[in-house]
Request: fold
Amino acid sequence: MTYCLAIHVGDGLVFCSDSRTNAGTDHVNTYSKMHEFILPGQRFFCLLSAGNLATTQVVVQRLRQDLETPAVRSLWTVTSLADAADYVGWVSSDTQRLQASRDVANTLFEASFILGGQIGGEAPGIYLIYPQGNYIHESAEHPFLQIGEIKYGKPILDRVVHSEISLEVAARCALVSMNSTIRSNLTVGPPVELSLYRTDTLQRGRYLMLTEADPLYKGIAEGWGAGLARSLEELPRFDWEIAPNQ
Amino acid sequence: MTYCLAIHVGDGLVFCSDSRTNAGTDHVNTYSKMHEFILPGQRFFCLLSAGNLATTQVVVQRLRQDLETPAVRSLWTVTSLADAADYVGWVSSDTQRLQASRDVANTLFEASFILGGQIGGEAPGIYLIYPQGNYIHESAEHPFLQIGEIKYGKPILDRVVHSEISLEVAARCALVSMNSTIRSNLTVGPPVELSLYRTDTLQRGRYLMLTEADPLYKGIAEGWGAGLARSLEELPRFDWEIAPNQ
Reply:
């Protein structure tokens, strides 16, 4: 499995992904699931991938090849983020179709993606591209998108993420959501990649690759554990704890 | 769906369940999923149920019928908690077999249960009974069990639950885990039932049925949200926030 998420706040975009791939519990590997496509000063894209690794590798390879091929639709020629999502969705579903055409074992070649970024003076945004190639975008009411093993890390996002938090606070939320998932599910694992894109910069922003031993990652994991314990301690008491004779 | 959990700490046992049942999104109802079987001074059982409602209702009815039938295996005659789990597992798989024998549409009649309690002077404990009728128990390293929609509420349990916390702290953990699940998933809903069994009492303990409007439930939900926001605020900063010229 995999866990990737993106958050869109007023200051910009946060992308976060784990690096564990597994084909069975005895075939576990580490692969990056974060892929950036940057034309400095003109356009910035970050793609997060989940699903069949052979599919996602071919999709990323085709996206890069198309950049080098003149007169072909590519991330350098798409006219909007929605157009970019549509293009990636087409490459993904076409790749899955090609993989399935060689298969005799009903294998699942599905892949999902989160694509976010900014094109010129347009507003930045994030899109979730389904295995079928169709896609949805975030909204002010729901400013985050997730793919892969999404349930463990959702409650923290549901409670604290909204469009007005700063880019750094959003990045810490993403790390907490990721760390909670890694603690609860073996198929999601470090290192964790984190990318912070600030609106209108149109270039690569802050990027971190965090191992479990990284002092920041450890500090956030331990600080969050201590914060939860303190929050639990401060919750309202039951009636009988306040008035023991009740 | 459903979410039920039980926690075993030094002081006793906590049981917590939601009350939402749904057969499609336009067929949503409220049913209790917590069933107590108590022979005061001799034995205490609490059963939590998830899965097909027709199956779980028949299972609970058969468990109650067996109590009234002399010379039949029942929760009053089982000799240990493991024996009780085995008995419930048998009733459950037998009920599923009976339901399936009338079915022509490959319907899923599966149900899972958590059974916990204490028999006489034996140690209290909790068991998870799978749809197949087999079962596992908790351990000192893993003192909680969950059935139904378990992922959203697992991270908080993984981080803060251990055998040494008090019964009331464990009950607050259960409420937070339940509230997080209810916020993130529509198929889990209030009212929330909570039962606290104190070791060696062999009678019904504290029991609460909490609606969303209940001041304690609201206080815990709001207190937890505020605690998370504060915990997030207190996490370590990124290097560039501490030394902006870096």
Observations:
- The first helix of chain B runs from residue 53 to 68.
- The two ends of chain B are 50 Å apart (CA to CA).
- Chain B has a mean pLDDT of 95.
